[in-house]
Amino acid sequence: MTFQLGQAISDGIRRILTPTGGILLVGFLAIQLLTQASINTAVISVFPDGPAGEIEAALGMTLPVSGTVAGGLFVGAVVLSSAYFAVLSRALTRPTVELSSFPSDLYTRRMGRATLSLFVGGLIVGPAIIIGFVMLFIPGIFLAVSFLFFTFAVGVEDRGIVDGLKRSWGLSRGNRLKLSVLVILAGVIGFISGIVGTLFDITNAAIVGELIVNTINSILFVLLYGIIAAAYLQLQGDDPERVDTSGVSESLNSIGS
After folding, report:
1. How far apart are CA 142 and CA 132, in angstroms?
2. Is 37 part of a structural domain of the chain?
3. Measured between alpha carbons, how far apart are the two ends of the chain, in Å?
4. In a domain, 185, yes or no
5. pLDDT at 94
6. Record's superkingdom (predicted)?
7. Cβ partners under 8 Å of residue 241, min gap 6
8. Rounded to an integer, what distance in angstroms lies between the CA atom of residue 75 and that of residue 35?
9. What is d(CA 100, CA 131) in angstroms, rounded to the nearest whole number?
10. What is the pLDDT of residues 126-176, one digit of tens each?
11. Quick one: which H or E segment has residue 152?
């Protein structure tokens, strides 16, 4: 199916401007804040009390726990993030008329397998993309686009790691140039967030800066994933709106008869 970028953007925005989008935004922000605070706390714990206080003021948010506990919380946040993206992929690919609800099957159906697959898959895909960017930049974009739908292949279609990677590669084939816009957009979001964070660091308002940066990041990345979800639905040939319409039409026809 030919990928329509404009349609994916408009559809993605509609999907995010729903109760489901709001729930996903809050969840993403919570994970972001937990990850940031646990990293800061672990870093500060390495230094003696004197320098640690100065570093804490520069870093921002911390947790009232030891460095060891903070490290454990960071690992937990990473695993939780994998589970979150499985839920996100399922939630955002439903018909838009269903996005006012958040049923339990989104976060209970085969969550162990999906979380493990996304966690291990991330360990494979992430370094590969980074190496691609370091080498010549273009290979990094190519790999990022090729594996753009891995999360959806695992979360929505219940595929394993290898099968999910193959599925994502196949979905992106023939549309990588248009899909690269989404990858570049993700980079722009990260760049803007970095600039905002630096400005707050300069003004010695690290905590405020982290809160603002993480909030901006969460809004923009959830929006981006809404667009990616819409792109995924296009490329797999699934039209949830058509399904809904036919269902309504059948009901009306049965009433009329």
Report:
1. 8
2. yes
3. 36
4. yes
5. 96
6. Archaea
7. 95, 96
8. 9
9. 40
10. 999 999 888 878 889 999 999 999 999 999 999 999 999 999 999 999 999
11. helix 150-155
Residue 244 covered by a domain: no
Whether 74 contacts 39, CB under 8 Å:
yes
b/e map 125-158, b = 16+ CB within 10 Å: beeebeebeeeeeeebbbbbbbbbbbbbbbbbeb
Please state, in angstroms and rounded to a whole number, the distance separating the CA atoms of residues 65 and 130. Answer: 32
Name residue 5's amino acid: L
What tokens were used for 225? 């994933």
- Asked if pLDDT for residue 253 goes beyond 80, the answer is no
Rounded to the nearest angstrom, the gap between the alpha carbon of residue 74 and the centroid of all alpha carbons in its chain is 17
pLDDT, greater one: 253 or 64: 64
**Overall average pLDDT of the 47-56 stretch:** 66
pLDDT at 52: 57
Q: Which residue would you say has higher pLDDT here, 119 or 202? A: 119
The two tokens of residue 31 are: 């994970």
CA atoms within 13 A on the CB side of 121: 30
Q: What tokens does 213 get?
A: 């940066």
- The residue whose two tokens read 């992929």 is 89
Q: In this predicted structure, what is the pLDDT of residue 250?
A: 35
**243 alpha carbon, distance to own chain's centre:** 26
Q: Which residue has the tokens 């958040």?
A: 102
**Number of structural domains in the chain:** 1
